[in-house]
């Protein structure tokens, strides 16, 4: 499966199959949440939250690809990610794009 954030793939002609998406809501355990909260007092990268967001993007992408595979897509183009906080220490990640089939 080819995944790109452009609306074309060089050298490929395709037909659009439709919108596909994936999402997840992730949180850290309370112990990590407290340590990351203390980290904000001294500054620096919040590694646990960075890992959480990387995991969330990977899960959301996997779900989007599964949806594209159900449509028998060869690629997903014009991929976009968005995230939002849903509560203290929890974030939603959504990824969406257009599933396409090569001609």
Automatic annotation (TrEMBL):
SUPFAM superfamilies cross-referenced by the UniProt entry: YbjQ-like
Name the UniProt record assigns to this protein: UPF0145 protein LY60_02369
A Pfam family matched in the record: YbjQ_1
Cross-referenced InterPro entries: UPF0145_dom_sf, UPF0145_YbjQ-like
Species of origin: Sedimentibacter saalensis
Entries under PANTHER family matching the protein: UPF0145 PROTEIN SCO3412 (PTHR34068:SF2), UPF0145 PROTEIN YBJQ (PTHR34068)
Transmembrane segments: none
Taxonomic superkingdom: Bacteria
Family: Belongs to the UPF0145 family.
């Amino acid at each position: 499966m080819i995944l790109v954030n452009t609306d074309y793939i060089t050298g490929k002609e395709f037909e659009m199959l439709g919108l596909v998406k994936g999402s997840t809501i992730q949180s850290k355990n309370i112990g990590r949440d407290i340590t990351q909260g203390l980290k904000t007092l001294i500054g620096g990268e919040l590694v646990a939250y960075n890992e959480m967001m990387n995991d969330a993007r990977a899960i959301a992408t996997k779900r989007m690809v599964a949806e594209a595979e159900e449509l028998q897509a060869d690629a997903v183009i014009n991929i976009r990610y968005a995230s939002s906080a849903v509560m203290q220490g929890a974030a939603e990640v959504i990824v969406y794009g257009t599933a396409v089939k090569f001609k």
